[in-house]
Every structure is written in C-alpha cells, then in structure tokens.
Design goal:
seven-stranded mixed β-barrel, 34-stranded parallel sheet, mainly beta, 5 domains
Length: 732
C-alpha cells in the first residue's frame, strides 16, 4: 500500500467521527472507550446473523478480544464486549447490548453464514486517540500556559507529549500496514440502476433517432457502471419504437465521464423521444464495476425487472439478494438465459434470489458453462422454459447446488451435460405441468450426487440419456423422490442410452417413483452396469413398476435390496407385474416386497410380483415377499434363461411336494428347478443314483425307506434302474 493510499485512509477515518467526546480530564480513558486493535485478524461467521442479534459465532475466535471493533461483510462495524471460544458478544453500555451493532455510523443488517469478519483499523480508533490527545493538550494549554512553570515540569510534559504522539503514529502505521488488501469488494446493484434518460435531455445521437444497427450515443454524463468496454452489457430503449435491449459494442466513454460516447447495436429503430436505462436494473453494471479479482454484488429487497441476460464472466463473483422471499429478479426476456456464466471461471456464488420468468419460451433461468467450485443456493425459480443447466467439458467440477425450488418449467428443470463432476444437488424441488418435461436430465457426467431431491408432475422425473461417446457414472441418489400423477408422466427414472452410450455405477438409497406409466424403465442402445437400488419404493404406477432390458442393450450387475415394488399396474389391474426383467446378466433381488402392500394403498393389481421374461443370465431372488398378486408370485418365462435361483421368497417358497413321472427307463435325468429342493426315491430296482458327478447310491432302498437327495437349484441327477421307482420332490 503506497503512502498516498494510507493518507487517504487516515483522512477518511478522521472524517467519520468528528463528534467523539474525550474522557480526559474528567476521567481516565479505558480500553472500552478507546478500543483495542490487532493485526491480520480474519475469520468468518458460521451461521446466519440477524440484524438484531447481539451474539454470533465465528470459525475461529482465537485472535479476537473484548473491546475490539470488527467489520462484518465490509459493511457493518460491531463493538465486541466478550469473546468466549468462538462465540462473540457485542455491546457498549452493557454486555450484550444492541448498541454494539451498527457501530460508529454503520447500519445493523443481516449477514449470511461465511460472511467475512475482520479487525480493520476503523475511524473510531483514530478519533478516539485524537480526542483524548486534544483533551490533554487543551488541559496543558499553549506553551503549557495552564501548567506551573519550571524547567523540569516543562521537560517532562514535552517528553510525555512526544511519546504519546510517536506511539499513536506508530500504532496507526502498524495497524494499517497489517490490513490485508480487500478480497471481496462490495457493490449494491441499485446504485447502478440509473433513472431513464430521455433523448435530447442527457443523451443524444446524430439525427435524434436510433437506427437498426450501430448507434453512437453521447451522454452528458455517462451513467454509473457504463463503459464502452463492457461487452456483456446492454441498455434498454423504450418510449418510441418497439422496446428492446441494445448491446454495448464499443465507445470511449467511461462511467462518470462528461460527454462520453457509448456505441450500441439495436435491432429496431426508435424515433426521437426514446428513453434509455439499464437493461438489468443495474445488476450487470454493478458486476462490471467490480475489480478483476471478483467481489460481491448485492441486489436489495424488492422486485427488479431485467430485459437482457445478466452475465458473470469473471471468477470470484458473488451475486446475492437479501433472501429468496425478499429479492425478486423478473424478466420477460426469452432470447437467452436470465443469468449466464459462459466462461471457464470459478468460485462464483448465486444465492438468495427469486427468479421469475415470462411463462413462455425454452430458455434457462441460469446457464452455467465450465464452472468450477460454483455455489448456487437459496433460490426460487419459476415461469421459465427450463431451470438450471450445468454443462461443459474442461473445468466443470466441485459445484454445489442447494435449497432451490424450480416450478412451472416445460423442458428440463435441471440439465447436466459434463464430462466430469456434475455437481452436488441438495434439497432441490422441481415442479412441472408439461408433457415432455424432465425434472432432471443427465446427458453426461461422472461424479454426481442428489440428496433430498423431489420432482412433481414432470414427464420424466430423472432422465439419464448418454449418447455416442458419452458416459453417466458414479451417480448417487439419496432420498430422491419422483412423483408423476399426470396422464403424460412416463417414467420416474428413465435410463435410455443411445448410440452406444454408457451408464455405470448408480446407487439409489431410499427415495421412490410413483404415479408414472413406469416407475423405473431401462431401455435404449448401449451399456448399463452396476446399478444398486436400496430401500427404494416404486408404487402406484400405471403399468410395470420396474421394466428392465431390451435386446439392443447390454445390462448387467443390478441389485434391488429391500425395495417396495407394490400396487403397480393401476391403469389395468392384472395387466403388468411389479418387476419384469429380460436381457439382463447378474440380477439380484434381495428382500423387499413385490406385492400388494401398505405403500400401494393395499392395491392388489400387479399380475405377478416378479417376471423373469427371457434371456436372463444368473439371477437370484432371495427373501422377497411376492404375494399377494393377481395371478402369480413369480413367473419364469421366455427362453434362454440360465442360472435362475429363487430362495426364501415368501408366497413362492416353499412350493411343497409333488410326484415326478420318470418313465420306463432304464435311465432318468432330472434337473432341479429355481429353488432348493429334496428328492425322495422309493422302491423299484435301482442300480445307480448320481448327483453332481458323484454316485450316492447303487441299490434300491429298503422297504419303507427312501433315498434322500438334497439338490441345489439348477443341478442334475441321473437315475439308473431296471424296475421303475417312485420319486417325489419337495421344493423349499
């Protein structure tokens, strides 16, 4: 920091509080009045701080002390009266007390979690020392006129005064040198939302009228935040012609310049009498006014109308409202997104806003491209064609989206199309009332997490649709619920790669899919593998609850654990099963309910609990409840099924005893079914019983006795005889 900058800071501090009252000579000043300071003190709040709160917590209070002045969010000064661990109390007349908030002429306001807290050298430090020093000098008098004469007295006082002055100067210099450069400059958008300027009265153009194309505007004083170099900015023209946003394309004018020129490009013409104003209620201008290192733009409470896209093209920018109930940005603009971050940037924050669209068009409310470490939170989005898109293939990673409500969309509530990390999405609600809409659509992305998400009325709750050369993988769904209950609602989750797209490593914990034609439908052309559904409920869908596989798809390694697949086929009772699997390799269904039940409203509408429909290789059904259903608990049909094992399926196992017809011989081959079973061989003239390659008997059993052969599923037994025995099986 150069000397001039330090001087200006000291001068500003001096101006801030001329009215402070000294303690001396009626008393002796203490730390409480003069306050204390420390170098390099930086921390952050850990929770929301209300405007009337007299205490707050910080991430580290080790450097804080009583009688310190702290600056929160670079806007409010507070007077600390007590520090206990990481809890800070404020107050002046008592501790705690509201008079410790909005100290020294600042205003007590709300602050979000993670707000910066700094022990800056404030105007109060300077003025407290100044008034005390002036009080001392006044008491002494000029040339020590108020002090008894004498060389020793004069010398002592001169020495004391010099020491005080030197100490004060050194302390101020040290404190200022220890203040870090500001890391989060602060702008308020309303400061840049200048009133409409009428042509001929503050702004002019050659001939008075704007033409379609390039126009050179001359402003009597260029409005705040407007510069010819602001490539992302536009100005809104109205009054004559069709209102429109005219993009700034150049000009030498800069904010505040007299007779500065700004070049704009308009689509239409506007006769004399037109007016011009910010196209983004000052928001774009405030963003452009931030330094290159980023900063914070706060949009105050109220409703602010935009006529063009707000573009965030620099890393480290925070765009915030006061709350999503308090700050609304409204637009009728349909030619692009309302908020765009189009470049390879990072550490952007968009929060505490309500974004309201025109209820038409297909534009996104927020469009993000190649963003790293972005945070979007506490947002309400309504009336746009689509909600949020997170796309890119070079820098997209480690972004967090939380506490967001998206309603009234006709396309995608959330679109993810990245080659790497697609972000963490937590506490997201998407509502739609349109056919063909998707609550969430993932075209590509590896490393995506949904936590406590919910969609209602979307055509597809979650669409996973990688194309040729694309992969969706490492997707974790925790408490992800998808509700349809409209005639156009097709799938709760639809996994449909095309052109050889790949889907792998998806885990769903809890969550559910209800009110669609199909709860979960897996189809398309490509490869799907390693899917786990744990504790997921799939109920009250019109047709099949879970439909797995088609011949054009390679699908393997699926686990359904403790899932509730109940009361499906509600559109036509008995027409469709709870789960239908075909063209699947390595399928495990463990536990859960595939029948009528409480989550299905007691509906007994499924034709069967589970159908193995053909071309299934290696499947285990173990411990599932598969009855009641309309016709069957489990059906194994179709062809080319191998390695099917059904164990402990309640309603299917045990099947019980039945006789086996073995014919005249002299040999009989038997292959066990899908469950464990026991064969009982009685009577006849037997010369050999072979099971699993071993001879277990070579003579007939004694009268009244049986040869007992426990058989695992899908295993073979060979019986050799000259007189036919009687054979029973007991399926467990």
């Amino acid at each position: 920091m150069n000397r001039l900058t330090r001087f200006l800071i000291l001068l500003t501090l001096g101006w801030a509080a001329w009215g402070q009252t000294p303690t001396y000579p009626t008393g002796v000043v203490t730390d409480s009045q003069i306050t204390v300071a420390a170098n390099n003190v930086q921390t952050t709040t850990t929770a929301f701080m209300g405007a009337s709160d007299t205490s707050f917590t910080v991430s580290s209070g080790s450097q804080l002390a009583a009688n310190m002045l702290l600056t929160v969010d670079s806007t409010e000064i507070v007077h600390v009266c007590q520090v206990t661990s990481n809890t800070v109390k404020v107050g002046v007349s008592s501790c705690p007390n509201i008079d410790g908030r909005g100290f020294d002429g600042t205003t007590a306001v709300t602050h979000n979690a993670q707000s910066s807290v700094s022990a800056n050298t404030d105007a109060w430090h300077h003025n407290a020392v100044r008034v005390e020093l002036e009080a001392i000098e006044t008491a002494l008098g000029a040339n020590l006129a108020n002090v008894a004469t004498g060389a020793n007295v004069t010398s002592a006082i001169n020495s004391a005064t010099t020491s005080i002055t030197s100490a004060y100067t050194a302390a101020i210099a040290a404190a200022i040198s220890g203040i870090p450069s500001p890391t989060l400059p602060f702008k308020v958008s309303s400061d840049y939302n200048f009133a409409p300027i009428t042509s001929g009265a503050g702004v002019s153009v050659s001939g008075g009228a704007l033409i379609a194309g390039t126009n050179v505007l001359t402003f009597a004083t260029v409005p705040p935040g407007i510069n010819g170099t602001n490539a992302n900015d536009a100005l809104y023209v109205a009054g004559t012609g069709t209102p429109e946003s005219c993009l700034i394309t150049g000009g030498s004018g800069t904010a505040g310049q007299t007779n500065g020129q700004i070049i704009v490009s308009c689509a239409g013409s506007h006769s004399a009498g037109w007016t011009i104003r910010s196209a983004t209620a000052g928001i774009q201008e405030a963003i452009d006014a931030l330094p290159g290192g980023g900063g914070q733009v706060v949009v105050p409470a109220g409703t602010w109308t935009c006529y063009s896209t707000i573009t965030i093209a620099t890393s480290g920018i925070s765009l915030r409202g006061v709350s999503r109930q308090g700050t609304t940005i409204s637009t009728a603009y349909v030619a692009g997104p309302l908020i765009s971050a189009p470049n390879v940037t990072g550490a952007i924050t968009i929060s505490d806003l309500s974004l309201t669209g025109p209820s038409t068009g297909s534009s996104f409310a927020i469009s993000l491209v190649n963003q790293a470490e972005l945070t979007a939170e506490h947002l309400a989005i309504s009336g746009f064609g689509q909600g949020i898109s997170n796309t890119g293939n070079t820098n997209t990673q480690l972004s967090v989206f939380r506490d967001i409500e998206i309603t009234g969309i006709t396309g995608d509530g959330v679109l993810i199309n990245t080659t790497i990390d697609g972000g963490t999405w937590e506490n997201i609600i998407v509502g739609s009332g349109a056919s063909g809409s998707n609550g969430f659509q993932i075209i590509a992305g590896v490393g995506i997490r949904f936590v406590n998400t919910y969609t209602n009325g979307a055509g597809v709750g979650l669409a996973i649709t990688p194309g040729a050369g694309q992969t969706v993988g490492v997707l974790e769904l925790v408490g992800a619920y998808f509700d349809g209950y409209q005639s156009y609602c097709q799938y709760g989750i639809g996994i449909a790669p095309t052109g050889g797209g790949i889907v792998n490593s998806i885990t769903s914990v809890e969550g559910g899919m209800s009110g669609f034609n199909y709860g979960l439908n897996i189809f398309g052309t490509g490869t799907i593998e390693d899917l786990v559904f744990n504790g997921t409920y799939i109920t009250n869908n019109n047709s099949t609850g879970v439909q797995l596989g088609v011949s054009t798809l390679t699908i393997k390694n699926l686990l359904f654990s403790d899932c509730l697949v109940e009361g499906n086929s509600v559109a036509s009772s008995g027409a469709a099963p709870g789960l239908n699997a075909q063209y699947v390799t390595n399928l495990v269904i463990r536990g859960g309910v595939y029948a009528a039940g409480s989550f299905g409203g007691g509906l007994n509408t499924q034709s069967a609990g589970i159908i193995i429909g053909g071309s299934v290789t290696t499947a285990l059904i173990d411990g599932a409840v598969v009855a009641p259903n309309v016709s069957s608990p489990i059906i194994v049909g179709g062809s080319s099924n191998t390695g099917i094992v059904i164990k402990n399926a309640i309603g299917y196992n045990p099947v019980g005893q039945s006789a086996i017809s073995i014919g005249a011989g002299p040999t009989f081959s038997y292959v066990s079914g899908y469950s464990d079973e026991t064969l009982y061989i009685q009577g006849g003239t037997i010369s050999g019983v072979q099971y699993a390659g071993h001879t277990i008997a070579n003579t007939s059993p004694a009268t009244g006795q049986s040869i007992v052969v426990p058989m695992a599923p899908n295993t073979a037994l060979l019986l050799t005889f000259s007189g036919s025995p009687t054979v029973f099986r007991d399926v467990h």
